[in-house]
Amino acid sequence: xxxxxxxxxxxxxxxxxxxxxxxxxxxxxxxxxxxxxxxxxxxxxxxxxxxxxxxxxxxxxxxxxxxxxxxxxxxxxxxxxxxxxxxxxxxxxxxxxxxxxxxxxxxxxxxxxxxxxxxxxxxxxxxxxxxxxxxxxxxxxxxxxxxxxxxxxxxxxxxxxxxxxxxxxxxxxxxxxxxxxxxxxxxxxxxxxxxxxxxxxxxxxxxxxxxxxxxxxxxxxxxxxxxxxxxxxxxxxxxxxxxxxxxxxxxxxxxxxxxxxxxxxxxxxxxxxxxxxxxxxxxxxxxxxxxxxxxxxxxxxxxxxxxxxxxxxxxxxxxxxxxxxxxxxxxxxxxxxxxxxxxxxxxxxxxxxxxxxxxxxxxxxxxxxxxxxxxxxxxxxxxxxxxxxxxxxxxxxxxxxxxxxxxxxxxxxxxxxxxxxxxxxxxxxxxxxxxxxxxxxxxxxxxxxxxx
Length: 452
Fold this sequence. Notes:
This is CubicO group peptidase (Beta-lactamase class C family). InterPro entries: AmpC-like, Beta-lactam-related, Beta-lactam/transpept-like, DUF7586. The protein is of the alpha+beta class. It has helices at about 5-20, 65-75, 100-105, 130-135, 150-165, 170-180, 230-240, 250-255, 325-335; strands at about 25-35, 35-45, 50, 60, 200, 210, 225, 260, 270, 275-280, 285-290, 295-300, 305-315, 355-360, 365-370, 375-380, 390, 400, 410-415, 420-425, 430. Helix 1 (about 5-20) runs antiparallel to helix 9 and helix 2 (about 65-75) packs across helix 5 (about 150-165).
């Protein structure tokens, strides 16, 4: 484990200790990951009379949903389904048959949050037939334009979808397709020792109550899994893009893209495809929170900074909502990243130099730069605006990778001598001078003049 400065470790330990003590959490383990390595982990409280370790299992609640989402995306990448497909195509007979698979993944289907019957998290669960039969017209909730509405039921349905298409229970598919390839040996459907006991803490007295740990049946894909800190380190790396052979990094990037927004008074969160999203002080975090009776957990990845935060606790409630982000703040405050020393690149394609520099979209100045990774970067000279990175194609064109021009084609226009004269970005013409008269600007250029 990469070590932090003693002062940093003390600051993190103090925040952990305050969280556990003030909120009366029976046991709490938390840690930080940077550049794929655990740089700090510590725990407070005890499990079975001993301090919690990185191999102690906790129930991770809705973090389970992220695994189910990966199984669905694997089916999509294999061509077995499309996110636009109707649920009726695979699970006919429910009142949400006209909803798309993608809407279930992005929590925008309008499906009720909880299944019919008793509180599913504290009672034995039924089978898939019972779950699907309970999804009638009363299970739909009015959401404007199919906006965000969190649904545990939706992921129970997605778990059954995986089971139908793979011909095996979803958790067996997960073991074969995700856990085994990633070496996550301590992530299981049922608890395996050593594991914490789920506890509720009395709000007005220092006594605890044992919470049940029932098999949720068909609702298990919404929140049943148990895991350890060590396994969650592997998973936070996965969410950040270190996917091994399980899923293409571009697919995980797609999962991290907003599909619906949790539009509160000051919205700062949303949902991708099976991943919760959070905007925090310039960071774009992806991951999930989790809770089941007796347990809470958080897992967040900051892919841009290659940083992650994880915590797991055995308490029904009481954790502060800022614990994860406080740990990220302390790391950034006490041990900010030091930029690598700049050196000239040995891999620049010198032929691209003629494309760099100032360009104009009409009167608006833009700059085209060569990035260290060989991509081109087109962005406004100052202020905010339409900016994108571009990757070269074999035919001499370039494809936008992000931003406004994601997926769009950039072509270089040249004169008879081969000198670049303009850029054609899906009909938008960029020229070396503002509205250059010799360039093929749609509508023509009458020339600059004095006055109004």
